[in-house]
From TrEMBL:
Gene Ontology annotations for the cellular component aspect, listed alphabetically: extracellular region
Top enzyme category: hydrolase
Protein name, as recorded: Neutral metalloproteinase
Cofactors named for this entry: Zn(2+)
Keyword tags: Hydrolase, Metal-binding, Metalloprotease, Protease, Secreted, Zinc
Organism from which the protein derives: Parafrankia colletiae
Length: 353
């Protein structure tokens, strides 16, 4: 594998696919290599689409009133790579026989409702953006991604990965990339890229917790729960509670996410380890959520959300600058107790706010 492969913000990190390409059987290897090749081009498309959406937003006056609800469209690529595919379900339509279509439809709606009810946000761009998703993308495509305009879901291979619509936290994770693009435009490289991934993990988990009404103590804090088949020795793609413990499998390898700056991974792969080092800010958020207690989206999540929106946050933000932004928002939004909890949460992973 190349040491300088550029990655797209997809659900399955490139280092996992590269391990499958090394350790899997012939079919698994071929599918992993095909997915890696597609993911490289998806990153270019995403950057282009995000730029066009930003330019369009700047030229379009904001809505005077919020939308009344999500505007969802689900397309079916039917095993091709054509986007958005054939429209098979639109807003208000009854469920159809295809469970993948219905899971995508419901996941978009659940994520929309989370951001609206928890933070008063009107869709991904806070301006009523219609939500589009395509299912059955590619042949055994082993990933899901946000391309700057829409969600795209592969069906997995059925051997290592189930269909990618099965995991609500993955859907929330990918749509949260759109929120980050809209608010902070965090560069997808090194620590700012790891923050980009971590923020998506945070809100992906909160979407699921919000739907279930779970407290921080009750939540599983997993990203990709249900995505791995029974043949894989693992429970998910990532764990915010215990980074580095989500899987340990002969084909996928072991989970190499660090939980502390002492173990920060310096690498040229994965855009500087964006899917790897995100374990550090993930653990910081988990620490804060547990310390504050209750429903994690109410205080910890609100602090992270407003830090993402803060004008002081730069596209090249580091862990330390984002930690400082969260401590500042904790003080502004709540008070001394929350500020102390946030500072201690970051200090526990080796980051000084």
């Amino acid at each position: 594998m190349s040491g300088h492969r550029r990655c797209a913000p997809c659900a399955v990190p490139p280092h996992v696919l590269e391990r499958i390409a090394r350790n899997g059987n012939d079919d698994q290897r071929a599918r992993a290599l095909a997915t890696l090749a597609q993911d490289t081009s998806h990153r270019t498309v995403r950057v282009h689409n995000a730029f066009l959406r930003s330019a369009q937003r700047a030229a379009t006056p904001p809505r005077l009133t919020p939308t009344s609800g999500p505007r969802r469209t689900i397309g079916d690529a039917k095993g091709t790579e054509d986007l958005p595919g054939t429209t098979v379900r639109t807003e208000g339509d009854e469920p159809i026989e295809d469970v993948t279509v219905n899971e995508a439809y419901d996941g978009l709606g659940t994520t929309f409702e989370f951001f609206r009810s928890a933070y008063g946000r009107d869709s991904i761009d806070d301006d009523g953006m219609a939500l589009l998703a395509t299912v059955h993308y590619g042949e055994h495509y082993e990933n899901a991604f946000w391309n700057g305009r829409q969600m795209v879901f592969g069906d997995g291979d059925g051997e290592l990965f189930n269909r990618f619509t099965v995991s609500l936290d993955v859907i929330g994770h990918e749509l949260a990339h759109g929120v980050t693009e809209d608010e902070a435009q965090l560069m997808y490289l090194n620590q700012s890229g790891a923050l980009n991934e971590s923020i998506s993990d945070v809100f992906g988990s909160l979407v699921k917790q919000h739907l279930r009404g779970e407290t921080a103590q009750e939540a599983d804090w997993l990203i990709g729960a249900g995505l791995l088949t029974d043949a894989v020795q693992g429970v998910a793609l990532r764990s915010l509670k215990e980074p580095g413990t989500a899987y340990d499998d002969p084909v996928l390898g072991d989970d190499i996410q660090p939980a502390h700056m002492d173990d920060y991974v310096r690498t040229t792969t994965d855009n500087g380890g964006v899917h790897i080092n995100s374990g550090i800010p993930n653990k910081a958020f988990y620490n804060a959520a547990i310390a504050l207690g209750g429903h994690a989206w109410e205080r910890a999540g609100r602090i992270w959300y407003e830090a993402l929106r803060a004008p002081q946050l730069r596209p090249n933000a580091t862990f330390r600058s984002f930690a400082t932004a969260t401590a500042r928002q904790a003080q502004v939004l709540f008070g001394a107790e929350e500020t102390r909890a946030v500072r201690e949460a970051w200090a526990a992973v080796g980051v000084t706010a």
